[in-house]
Write a structure and sequence with these properties.
Oligomer: single chain
Radius of gyration: 22 Å
Helix content: 25-40%
CATH class of the largest domain: Alpha Beta
Number of helices: 10
Largest sheet: 5 strands, mixed
CATH topology of the largest domain: D-Maltodextrin-Binding Protein, domain 2
Structural class: alpha/beta
CATH architecture of the largest domain: 3-Layer(aba) Sandwich
């Protein structure tokens, strides 16, 4: 008989194709993940992964197993919630995802208020990068997410609430020669060392930044990529370079950073997203409390890459 726990671990590994990421999502050690996968392969008498120096690759047997169990595991949380609702137990839980932005620091106060209001409520929070957060909502890993978006809203299965919008900006330290200027152009920084989000974790802002370089007719003297905006802000604070980031970046964590407006019409949206079919009342409560914090009025512009 197949072991539920091992299949769940296999499902997570097959999704991430990375033992380290799978262990982080499952809150178990990487060695435990590797051991369970080896035991599952021995029980099935089939190799499920090809292990390379960098990646995992599903074998044909691994792909078949993944395809067969995905309909259940991808809907596991939804199934459990429906069972709880039908049984009248109605477990109260809210799983919140967020990106590494300044506005995420509002979440703890709202969570505290919700917990004080309902002692039976359980709340979990997790940080995600650009490309991870929308699939996390769609795949029932989290219930609601605070994210940044570029372009039009294109998720037919999701609802959203826009909280604010702003164009991207240049972030420098206050020791940069341009830090005191009233207005700057992107071309002013063509000789600077640009720090960017990586294509692996944040494909859209990475490609958008490269598009802007091309549009403005230059390639920066030097480029370095990082997987998280917090790391980029630390590097800017260390005078290691500058970056093109959203105005929602957590620049307040470093008082010596300066955010400089540049002439770019494209907007970045700060929004909450959740599954339209989700009946969890805690989602609406969280959304309403977040809405109260944001009063910015704007017209939604047209965006194109």
């Amino acid at each position: 008989m197949l072991n539920y726990n091992k299949l769940k671990i296999f499902f997570t590994v097959a999704q991430t194709l990375n033992f380290t990421r799978a262990s982080e999502e499952l809150f178990i050690s990487q060695s435990a993940v590797s051991r369970h996968m080896k035991e599952l392969e021995e029980e099935l008498g089939a190799v499920l992964f090809i292990r390379t120096n960098r990646d995992l690759i599903l074998t044909e047997a691994g792909r078949v197993l993944y395809q067969e169990i995905t309909p259940f595991y991808s809907r596991e949380e939804e199934i459990l919630r429906k069972v709880y609702d039908a049984a009248g137990t109605g477990q109260k839980e809210l799983r919140i995802g967020f990106m590494g932005i300044q506005q995420a620091f509002h979440i703890p106060a709202i969570v505290n208020n919700m917990l004080l209001t309902d002692a039976n409520l359980s709340i979990r929070m997790k940080r995600y990068n650009w490309d991870e957060i929308k699939p996390a909502v769609e795949n029932y890993k989290i219930d609601v997410a605070l994210r940044l978006r570029m372009g039009s809203f294109d998720a037919s299965q999701l609802d959203h609430q826009i909280l604010d919008a702003a164009p991207p900006a240049i972030v420098t330290s206050d020791r940069h020669p341009a830090a005191s200027k009233e207005s700057v152009c992107l071309e002013d920084f063509k000789n600077d060392h640009f720090l960017m989000l990586s294509e692996t974790d944040s494909a859209l802002p990475n490609s958008f930044t490269h598009m802007l370089f091309k549009k403005h007719g230059f390639q920066p003297r030097k480029l370095s990529v990082y997987d998280q905006p917090e790391t980029i802000l630390m590097m800017i604070h260390s005078d290691a370079g500058i970056s093109l980031l959203s105005r929602f970046a957590a620049t307040d964590q470093f008082p010596d950073l300066r955010v400089l407006d540049i002439s770019i019409p494209d907007m970045i949206y700060l929004e909450l997203i959740w599954r339209r079919s989700d009946s969890n009342p805690m989602i609406r409560q969280f959304v309403e409390q977040m809405k109260e914090l944001f009063t910015s009025a704007y017209q939604v512009p047209t965006f194109s890459l």
